[in-house]
Amino acid sequence: MLSHTRKNKILELLKTYKQISTQKLEKELDVSGATIRNDLAQLEEQGLIERIHGGAVLPDKDEVDSFRNFHKRSEKNIEEKKAIGKLAKDYIKSGQTIILDASSTILYLIPYLSNCEKLTVLTNGIYTALEVKNEEDFNVILLGGIVRPKSGSVEGLIGSCMLDDISADLMITSSHGFNVNNGLTDFNFYEVELKKKMVSKSSKLIALVDHTKIGHTSAAQFAKTSDIDLLITDSGIEEDDVKKIKEAGIDIIVGK
Which residues does the UniProt record annotate as the domain HTH deoR-type (predicted)? Predict the structure, then answer.
């Protein structure tokens, strides 16, 4: 069983039982205690569980929902996201095929797309598609798959298969975390697999990452540092982080 599949199974079991022992997880998932403890440590780091003696429990429900609820995330760091979206528009050209992820940051880019003509836009974002479809000469493709409660994204193998014959000029994405060692990371293991495929089908990758996510690592990687052509962030970023990003070979633009 793959690591991300196993961690999602742990979360599903916790949702059912509210509290679960390490021994039960070992039996349910047929893995060693060391593997379970490592998984629990990573899930706790992301705020998705709380470890207790001999097992784990779910944390406060509101805290977990703050990670997963799209509308809550879209209300955070609004001015920073607006500044980032305004800068990102300059890298999108008429006639291109672009991939947009389901992040709340992307919503602040969409108003600027009206300056382009004849874009083909592929996205797994439900709200992204609803916003961008209003442009009459855009070809908007919503990738198929599973829609989960309180999520603004579509996930799963159907969307991945739809990308098989696609060659995109550009992917624009955000993430839950970024650092130069681990690249772009996110907390939704199923969506991460789809975003990996999106990255592989794009000629260029632009990351829109506000300063609160710089230096952090989430549960799973979907893009290596070497995959990123340009990172756009806001003025809250530390100078030391700017230096590290440049030294890693990534072009960076800082909004005001």
Answer: 3-58
3-state helix, strand, coil in the chain (%, to 5): 45, 20, 35
For the chain, domains (ranges, CATH) are: 3-59 (1.10.10.10), 71-254 (3.40.50.1360)
pTM, two decimal places: 0.75
Report strand pairing: 50-52 vs 55-57.
Answer: antiparallel
Return d(Cα 88, Cα 108) in angstroms, integer: 10
pLDDT digits (tens, 9 = 90+) for 214-227: 998 887 899 999 99
Measured CA distances, 195 to 56, 60, 131, 175 (Å): 29, 28, 20, 10
Stronger pLDDT, 50 or 151, i.e. the higher one: 50
The tokens for 22 are 């390490």
| Cα–Cα distance measured from residue 217 to residue 185, given in angstroms and rounded to the nearest whole number | 6
